[in-house]
Amino acid sequence: MTLLEGILVVATGFGAGVLSSTVGVASLLSFPVLVALGLPPVVANVSNTLGLIPGGLGGVLGYRDEVREAGPIARAIVLVCALGAIAGAALLIGLPPGVFEAIVPWLILFTCLLVGVQPRVARWLRQRHEAHHGEARAERRHMSPATTAFATMTGVYGGYFGAGAGVMMVAVLGLGTDLELRVVNGLKTLSLMVGNVVAGLIFIVVAEPRWDVVVTLAAGSLVGGYVGARIGRKLPDAVFRWAVVAAGVVAALLLF
After folding, report:
1. What residues contact 77, with CB distance under 8 A and at least 6 apart?
2. Rounded to 10 degrees, what is the CA torsion of 107, 112, 116, 119?
3. Which residues of 173-203 are buried (b: 16+ CB within 10 A; e: fewer)?
4. How many angstroms from the chain centroid is the CA of residue 214?
């Protein structure tokens, strides 16, 4: 890399780190830049995944209070996303390329719809419970079997393809638990980091990353991830929710 390209990759890593810790669509920025710099798509994908791992670490560090507050749900997210990412990577290796490409944009758009309507759905479920049982529903501070299953499927998707996985995790945890949105955002950042770590370890074994790009991207993403977490913690719920929806729609349109 030239000096100018190195500066561009560091700046890209910073921007991708901020996006990862806020709306969860880091690769929409970083992957196209790496391809534009002349890296073959597979090498760009591998290098991008490895380079964004420090961004995830910085994001989780920034959200450490929220992750700690989530308690057992955070531990469950680590487990299901690690297992899901392994399964997703196996599908990526074993299936013909492009199997899910046709449905991925629609899946992301549907997830955006869920994120957008989640407050109304949660309110309807709460009122329905009170009408049937005559008492307020206890707050859901643990993942039900259904929520765990959907979180695992999101982890599989993240290991296989990844674009929009953060948006999907926000929808799953927003509908399946009663955690505050800032805590959900911290768990989303944690899930993306776990997926990148698992996929990155697999890529180191089976692929050939450009290590100069990985290190340069990592330097920017580490700082960007932490800065993004500080921003994400202060965003009002409504602003964060619609920012996630907007990012998901952009991701879907780019994938059509």
Report:
1. 70, 151, 187, 190, 191, 194
2. 60
3. bbbbbebebbbbbbbbbbbbbbbbbbbbebb
4. 19
Structural tokens at position 248: 């998901």
100: nearest Cα among 23, 27, 164? 164
Place of tokens 């961004």: 55
The pLDDT of 180-203, averaged and rounded, is 90
pLDDT of 132 reads: 66
- Only one residue has tokens 């780019």, namely 254
Where does the pLDDT of residue 245 fall: very low under 50, low under 70, confident under 90, or very high at 90 and above? confident
Q: 80 and 152 in contact (C-beta within 8 Å)?
A: yes
Give the separation between CA 55 and CA 42, rounded to whole angstroms: 21
Distance of CA 201 to the CA centre of its chain: 18
pLDDT at 136 over 80: no
C-alpha span between 126 and 136 (Å, rounded):
7
pTM score of the predicted model: 0.84
Helix, strand or coil, per DSSP, at residue 161: coil
Give the C-alpha separation, 215 to 210, whole Å.
9
Name, of 98-107, 112-121, 193-202, the range with top average pLDDT. Answer: 193-202
Name residue 234's amino acid: K
CB 225 within 8 A of CB 20: yes
For 217, how many CA atoms within 13 A lie in the half-sphere containing its CB? Answer: 27
Contact 80, 39 (CB under 8 A): no
Say whether 1 sits in a helix, a strand or coil. coil
